[in-house]
Amino acid sequence: MRILITGADGFLGRNLAVALGERGHEPIAFTRATPAESLGELLSIADGVAHLAGANRPPSPEGFIADNQGLAGRLADELRTLGRRLPVVFTSSTQASRGNPYGDSKLAAEQALAAVADVADIGIFRLPNVFGKWARPFYNSAVATFCHQAARGLPLTINDPSAPLTLVYVDDVVAALIAALESPVHGLSHPAVTPEYQTTVGAVADTIRTMAEQRPLLGVGETGYGLPRALYATLLSHLPADQFSYPIPVYGDSRGIFAEAIKTPASGQVSFFTQVPGVERGSHYHHSKSEKFLVVKGRARFRFRHLISGERVDVDADAATPCIVDTIPGWTHDVVNLGDDELIVLVWANEVFDRQRPDTIAAKVEP
Question: Using CA atoms, how far apart are residues 38 and 170, in angstroms rounded to an integer?
Answer without folding.
Answer: 28
